[in-house]
Fold each of these.
Amino acid sequence: MGRRYEKVIKYKNRPLFTHRVYDKIIYLHRIKKMISMAHIRFRAVEEAHKRSPQPVEVGSGNISDLFAVNVFDREKMRRYLTKEAYDSVISAIDEGRRIDRRIASQVASGMKAWAIERGATHYTHWFHPLNGLTAEKHDAFFSLTKEGHAVESFSGDLLVQQEPDASSFPSGGIRNTFEARGYTAWDSSSPAFVLEQTLCIPTIFVSYTGEALDFKTPHLKSLAALDKAAAAVCSYFDKDVKKVQVTLGWEQEYFLVDEALYNARPDLALSGRTIMGHAAAKDQQLEDHYFGAIPERVGSFMRNFETEAYKLGIPVKTRHNEVAPNQFECAPIFEEANLAVDHNQLIMSLMDKIARKHKFRVLFHEKPFKGINGSGKHCNWSMLTDTGVNLLSPGGTPKNNMQFLAFLVNTVKAVYDHSALLIGSIAGEGNSHRLGAHEAPPAIMSVFIGRTLSQVLDDLEERVSEKKMSPDEKTELKLDIGKIPEILLDNTDRNRTSPFAFTGNRFEFRAVGSSASCASPLIVLNTAVANQLNLFRAQVDELIEAGVKKDEAIFQCIRKAIIESKPVRFEGNGYSKDWLDEAARRGLPNIPDAVEAFKTFLLPSSIKLLTENGVLTERELEARYEIRNEIFTKKVQIEARVLGDLAINHIVPTAIAYQNVLIANVKGIKELFPIEEDYQHLAGPQLQSIRKISEHVRAIRELVKELVEVRKESNLISDMPALADAYAHKVKPFLEEIRYHIDKLELIVDDEMWPLPKYRELLFVR
């Protein structure tokens, strides 16, 4: 053997070095390569530690002086539009009337003048395609006359409609991919705004044949359906109510990661989450981050994006540290739901842009880090009349409280009837990592209203019957109902495990994922409540026509809804195993699997709900089902490819390089301590580590090979739902298996050689 290693390596018949020397050079080269890979990590850590807070100009005035300066709101419209144009736009906003083309030209002229004064050079139709993001195509105001003179041009036709290329947006089969045309149409109910020298016009997005290709179109239809249904029920209590609008207050959770560390983690950059990484010794177990002092650099970022948000009319109210390290939250004041959804989409884009200026990257993924809390987007939902009454807030009179109970109970009944579809509306690949863990609601749609209100409903169920009530019984019942506001002052504590919880004057839909559009769950919720209110109205009217007094008819129908929806009410711990068993006994759907949850879009009850209320056609529902599956598949596909690359090209070579260091060490011990007993005693730990590394490396290689083969096999499936199912149940399990072995190697391999930033660096460098 010695002779083989002593064989001389020659080049052009000239001796260079021996095999032994050659092997050593190769070995040293590999070690150097591993150290070089790790150097990227340490350089990123060093760079992150050197960051300092960026100065932020917030002006010397009050927030009120900044608020909505870049929004073409009613105040600006009154200044820049003719009275005729102004009145027409206001009628369109308040009453849903159409704006004719002549008026649109006047509006466009005034809007252009204002935008140019704000520094705008371009305009765009800003819309929400079904990929969950926002989209925009910028066109310059600049144009040329027939004589070749430059002018600033923006007509009414350009304001009302554009025809962007729609071929690259998901359509779920509604349109052919070889056809490019799509249409954007102005949503006058959401004001235009100027962002970075561009006039942004909120729009709907539809296909050539008129099908919705966005979230906004069906959301607006669901709001209109609820407005009509709720106003009809309100007429029982207050004839002055002509309009009911949905209000929404979202809570946006997110993580911040230093830009250098982010760039050194290909999994974060490409998939939005860490698909490998062992837990840090300290994460959130001491609960010292929640509501703690905001780090200075993070605070600078917050002040920056909040200032820009105020300019765009986004009423950001709250900021704080969330539970997990480097996790934060912002929340606005309640707004009309269509505007609130626009503002949430806008602020996510705004936060991403401004984070980069501060050398951060924002993570909206629902579960970017394993083992610590993920991020949600609580949607606080209520209904407000044009007379200023919150329909989910108890009033000061028995009549007002009857109204409150009617809307509360019918909302609970709507959630019960369409709980499966509500689960489907918030399902996705990202949210599947979060739901069901002890950090987020379970994948069971239940409603929490508190013990006090539960007792009120139980009493009402007992005291009201189909028999005619005596005047004394009705008076006593009304008096007791009148006490509801006083009772609620001492209400039960808020339940953090409920996916749909009543919190005093609103329902909090807690299961929505951080990256999701608020419109997705609201489309379902609005339509379900509208449908139930229509049924309630029909039932009450039927009893009145049969000779039952109005108040008694209302009480009887409320009681009916209480009884029918009772299974969905739950006051206990949603994280407990007992609740899973109890929910099954109650017949409540439990759908933690995202691909299974998507199927709720095609349930007969879902199709009936959304088609009969004019919100989505059956074809549009089928398209959304297809798109959800497509997005899920592509996300898992990306994660699988990234993991395979990192495992084979980064982790395995690093592990082998460190293993070679151990082997050299063991050989050295053998030479110094030739006695077997001494050698085994001293080299035992290294030999054990060498064996473990070999086992993990072998497992990773085999699993990655299997993963590739399963992907190839799955990719032959042409049916998209079947493909999503294959990726969910055949491909996705490999990710956790491979991760297990990588995370074990992270504990063994020398920290100086590990190539990727670790959790302790990602979570605690800020």
Amino acid sequence: MLFLATKAFSQDSPGFKEYDQTTWRLYQQRQWDSLIIVGKQAMASGNDYQYLNARLGVAWFEKGNYRMASRYFGKALRLNQGDEFSREYLYFSMLYSGRSGGARSVTNGFSEAARQRLQLKSPVMPAYVYVELGPLNTNAINSLRDSYISGSDSIYGELNLPGNAFYFHAGGGFELGSFVTAYAAYSNLSLDRYERIELGDIDTIRRSYDFNQHEAYLNLSVEPVPGLRIVPSFHFIYNRSRPIIATYNQDSAAYNFHVKSYTNKDIATGIALYADFGLFDIALHGNYATLMNKTQTGGGAAITWFPSGNLDYWLKIHTSMLSEDGQHRWVTEPSAGVRIFPHVWAEASAAFGDLTRYVDETNFLLLNTDDKTTLRAQGVIYIPAFENVMFSFRYIYNRAEGLTWHYDLAGKTMLSETFDYQRHTLLGGIKWSF
């Protein structure tokens, strides 16, 4: 381990000897606040060298500000790549601030002795499995189950609404070396849909049918240097359903009804770039998607602030623009997280704007529905059960607008009317790390 006293080292900057002796004394006395103040003064005077950066890194580390600590340990390493002391501290600074990818990147420079001492595993291995599942409940059907939908002309009315559903997700994380990780997952959404067709005042069709959706998701996280991460991602969706289709026969002046099988394939792909800047993370992303027979491009940016330099609490604001059919829509999503107990975290977020066919920054969340979603809010709590097992409990609230259709005799066309409904989702998850 590196001895942080300055040895045979020449320095021509003003006050070097005094600053070096003072910071070394404060380091030995564990006076971290004073060390930080004097260290900053030393650097402002032009005294910027490996040992001073390492001492400042330790001071911030001992204060629990791991992001500031990693900044100084990283600088010490740039001044001396053989600095095992700073490399080891940088590894733990990254790890304790939730930047596991950066921590893995640091391990690439460890000696074999350091790897054995820290009991580091092989860089190519399955890292964890994650399973999440639960019900989705909505009031969309309740409000319109028995309402009149044929309009003032009482000729024809129809609706097709989402019902309750069940969601299942299973995935695995993989470490593909010191710089690359991957997450691959499968999801299934089993949804009841409800349809009504009203001719005049008579309910001609009233039935439920299944809507089944299968999803495959993959992302790669490439972190060539600690604090800079590139994440390409891909999401494929396949769904099928068998609704009843109504057609009007002009010759017989009557409606015909038949069940039609539908299959739909949606994709979303994109790339995101994440960079650490001390207490802030900056993200930029671009997306391309084909959802519900619509082609969409999008892009956005996010900034996350860690006021205490660790995972005690954080604030994030994410804004994205979606372009579709020549129209542009903005979505803003603030979020926050807090450590409520030593090993228990809670997070909350809300997305505002027109979220119809919304795609998030890593293409994981896709709202592939034509119903206009105007608000999506969620809260989640993470509770560790054992050293390698983490439970999560998530609640999601969606506010959306559905449509009913009726025939307008004067205009000889179908007109739509909107109505509001809500969806409530409860998901339980478990992450098992190896």
Amino acid sequence: MALTDDIKQQIQQGYRDVLAGKGVRARYGQRLMIAEIAKYMGEITENDGQRTSPPAACVVEAGTGTGKTLAYLIAAIPVARALGKTLVISTATVALQDQIVLKDLPDLKKHSKMNFTWTLAKGRGRYLCMSRLESRLHDEGNGDSDTMPLFLLDSPGTEEPGTRAFFEEMLASYGSRKWDGDRDHWPEQIPDDVWRQVTTDHRQCTNRHCSYFDSCAFFDARKDLDEVDILPPEEVEAARKDLDEVDIVVANHDLVLADLALGGGAILPEPENALFIFDEAHHLPDKALNHFAASVPLNSTRQWLKQLSQALAKMQPYLAPATQAARSIDRISTASRDVDLILARVYEEAEQNTGWEFNEERRSAQWRYPEGELPETLAELASESRIATANLVRHLGVLADELQGAFDERKQHEIDRDTAEAWYPVIGAFHSRSEDQLRLWTAWTEQVGGQKTPQENEQGASDQPGAQGHPPKGRINRSPPPARWSVRQRWDHAEDITLFSSPVLADNLLYSRLWSRAYGAVLTSATLTALGRFDRLQARAGLPEASRLLVVPSSFRYGEMATVEVPAMACMPTDDGFADELINRLPGVWAGETATLVLFTSRRQMHQVRDALAPDHPDLNITQDDMSRGEVLRQHRSKIDEGLPSVLFGVASFAEGIDLPGKYLHHVVITRLPFSVPDDPIEAGLAEWISQRGGNPFMEITVPDASIKLVQAVGRLLRTEEDTGRVTILDRRIVARRYGQLLLDSLPPFRRIIER
């Protein structure tokens, strides 16, 4: 029992010190959250450092204004230190990760008498690779990398991403230490296709053998958190000791999931020795699904195989005949041809024997395989592809190992050091890509159905589902089969078919890899319940039955601070004339307001409305797609500061995560209830499974999901206790349909104004 009187005193005194130091008052919800987390952690039983109590999580929904970050830090740090466990704080976004590291933790240490250490953990792919950047510039004829011109420090402002000038600016900023090489700290958003050119992964990185190692952004950021697999054996123990001596590791959900996929403890502390806190925990199930999804674009992969053949041909002259590396090249070439031939057959089969129905606007067609069952011929080809791709992965791995071995100066090797340094990143990239392809073929050949949920291991048996497909106590529940689908895409001069696979629920994955192993875990967010219940989260995240569930009240006086208004509308969103009514009604809706956010569920409709209103309101609207997210918000704030009205148009990503307190937002307009896209293959697979079990997918999936998204959208309005404003919902289904009352009641208790 770690929650001794002394630890309780530390928590209470720490909280009093912070309140006094910051000159703020205690909040009831915050105090309740502190007490609940501390009690949960203190009740975990152990024997010789190993948890003996059943798996359990502490789930706390804490609305905006609760001060949840301070609450879980105050409660968890003393308990974790007393237990000798590392506190791993995981966020959904790197922005929140930086906030905790750069603001919240220093602030807590400043105002309290708590003594603790922390470090930041981001994946390698968030950092600049100087070797890749140098190669990128060198390939364009910039000259020898040893004489790379760092005198470009005075180059003019930010250049268009992807241009030579942009990469030169990146080099200059990093060379002058104006930028630390962290993608998230670049002034503007860097597109994914541009960033991939200047970052790397563990398969391509030469680590300590790289000529830029001493100035590496990744290793500089992770001085206290070295990945064990990059170190010589004699340094592993020391690195692990340094990691264990850090009290707090601030990570993100993607990094936690990546570590779990490697078995846990490869990047972060072992789950058995860690207390996890998942902030913005409502993202975790979807993050897990994305992490364990896989895809293969068939024609693009065949083009990639041609590039592999060309690379092997260029590499071969640098290898002595009859060496292991030379033999590997021959085997890779053979394996590559085998994969190419099979992919051609897969493409022909998918193209000719699939009932494609093209969406001409998107120039694409999608086909979902019901219940994850593949046609017999396609299933056979998938099995052949798995075998051939596994063979390719194996031989690429042998060659990568041979190249890596040449870095060991203590041993003689058949490959010279210069050749290894030049070709290891290249072969590593091909190896990594082939492993990604193997994941898809492995997923496509796994047996469908029959998997047990995590709760089956804690319960008995039955065929009747509970809420959200979650089994009642004492019952057995089967997990849904994986979603498998194909997408055929057309361009002006090319076409491709991409194969996909994804779990439909992340319950098994999270339970087996995380909840069953972790010493303890806390999940918190402003939106964990759906329609007032935790059922949705429990089912999708596979939470143990013994988990503690709590909703703490917000300090906001909702009824005094804001109204929710539902005006009379002539059209429903499903009517053909709805877009025209939006165009006619919106100017009147935002009239008299200085700061408005209008949220759409469709980019097409957003652009349609914007284009129709632009002539009459040329300087009023700022649309999410006009520029980067940061620039959109900057321009919006600038207009408000100048005393001008501003109306933001946005879609789903603007319904969560943007922070416009005070004068920067007084009015949120919801054009349409945020129901899921009906053709999403993962949601369709889940709906199919629930229907087969006698459930109602609309009420069990669609409505709860919409309630969470609606609460998140409405949550943009009030960010501080001083904020006021109103929410306008233009979708009359919220009062005209039976489910509408459920959605309306899920919102904060604003004063309601409903036109009849």
Amino acid sequence: MFYKWGQFAYRHRRIIPVVVIAIILLMQVLWGSKLGDRLSQEGWEDPGADSTTAAQVEEEVFGRDNNGDVIVLVSGNINDKTVMAEANRQITALKEQYPEQIDHITSYFEKPNPQLRSADGTKAFAAIGLKGDGEQTLKDYRAIEDALNDITLPEGADVQIAGATAIADALDQGMADDIARAEKIGLIFVAVILLFVFGGVVAAAMPLVVGILSILGSLSALSLLAQVQQVNVFSQSVITLLGLGLAIDYGLFMVSRFREELDQRGDSPEDIEAAVAETTTTAGKTVFFSALMIGVALSGLLMFPQAFLKSVAYGAISAVVLAAIISVAVLPALFSMLGRNIDKFSVRRTNRKARRIENTVWYKIPAWAMRHSKPVIVGVAGALLLLTLPIVGITFGGINESYLPPSNAVRQAQDDFNETFPAYRTDPVKLVVKGADNDQFVDILWQTRSVTGLASPMEKTKSTPDGTFVMAGTLADRNGGEDVVKQLRAIDVPDGVELYVGGTPAMEVESIEALLERLPWMAVYMVLATFLLMAVLFGSMILPVKAVLMNILGIGATLGFLTLVFVDGLGAGVLGFTPGPLMSPVLVLIIAILYGLSTDYEVFLVSRMVEARNKGADTDQAIKYGTAHTGSIITAAALIMIVVAAAFAMSEIVMMKYISYGLIISLALDATLIRLLLVPAIMHELREDNWWAPRWVKRVADSFGEGGDTKKQQQQQLIDAQSHPRTGDIPVGETVLASQHARSGVSADEDTQLIPFDELMRRLNG
């Protein structure tokens, strides 16, 4: 299948790139350019949760609760008549200046209310409610933002801007800065790495082409999705991160294999076609299955009800799929046109035939790990488990101003306001009562008086004659929402009365409950689906089991690291964030991404081992061969992904730091300890058991290699290579086949586990 596609790409090499690029550019013009206007700050809530129902009832009956949209906090000599008069004049003028945006203003400076002034008399505030709802709220804020920042008072009085919408704007701006930084800084550093890896401008440009096209296409697809579904603004950063990183990884893998195939062939058109077809059969198949497995892992996010997770899933899957399509469709066509010009415009002299593969570090490391397999397994697995231990202290919370850096002006203003006016915090817990008469409401209100963990008793804020009431209260400790919500849920509700616990604390609790309820099912789904795909790809039932266990070890270590840093606060001052609970939906996202990427590198590595095995190599030879040929590629791919993630690690938004630092530590562990040491050691211990599978699995696996070198042809290549060894420089692609009587410096007499050369030839010929 893949071999035939490679031949098709060669025959239509001038048409395929034009068609694909034209489609992506058309998508960008029609939809991609409009993405910014279609993204939402919403989507964190569970549509079927009580907190969502509470918000809907309150909004339908009373309208949106806009009291905490914008806070103008004045500090200093607020009792000075000049300060009072000037603050009142400028704040009141906002309503006259922006009647379409501002709904109401509750100001201490207009009507001095002691509750709007601090106990020490040094601070007071005005609360501005905006008219719009949903995304219009943010647009209204941005319309008045400059006027808010222009408020100036006489000497001795300072003005700060806080509020829920001001925080949302700061978070949104942080996301936009992240994307701009990744596209500028990330691409530059990635280009430098690719130039170093390939040594030539043309070869280095190929993965960048895949990356740029994938981002344009995936963001256009996201914009199209935003027309029919709520898409959270956070998803844009995640898609840019995954799309750029994975697309370049796939391009790197394809280019490396094409150059390797060229090294074994001549310069005729037939040779170029064969190189393109074989690259597509091997690397193309690997890329296809890798993208499929990552897509499967990300699709597990669809089990969760939050629109945020669904939008990220759809967008990320589109990014991965596009990266694979462009890599498997466009790159073979470009290879066909370039031929040996893929090495053109070299910036450094490279000789890919200069060294025997046995002399490379990528061969020596797994060889060492196999010689010391038992200590390596115990040591590496033990280290990963030790790094996992901090996960026992993990806690969960919701999005708030603490997700902004301590130096952010809006964050500082909100912290100051929360500390000075705890009863007016913008994230109260609410009770929405429906269908209650006055006596029934009083009964419920009286029960709330026994609830502990509130800064002050809950008070009625809104009511209607038909028995709809809203009560609100703030938490004494922001992290104590679970206990308060549990107590409110336990209230004895009279017959015929509906009671819903709402507000941000309730939404956070429900998100955690959804995590605990659905995460095991997501895990089962991801494991089963990727297991089956790997079984088909590898032709083995044992290798997928090993891969899943490696993924679990890597993810556990990463989550332990994230807990140690972001919850316990290790290095928080240096990294510029405030430690606190992890946001549960983001944690789910991290798990899906890490599982997908871990599977990605496993596929890259083991597929090459399987290829060597199918050419007649024994288990240890296959391990060394596969690692030697892919070790440098996996390392380069991991380094590229780390660079892209590092661009997002500079984000002001803590959520993005979760993902970026999680990726960095996960990739570092995966590309070193796991793939170069642990995997070779475990496979060495398993020996021939690695390749066990029922016959039907073997048949399905073989079907994906049809049209290229068949197993018999590959074995004949092995015989020919052994019978007619080359002298001088040995091509990388043949070095594992050119193993003489002494393999890796050890003869069959020295190592009884090795098959004697004559016996190996007899088996192959037989």
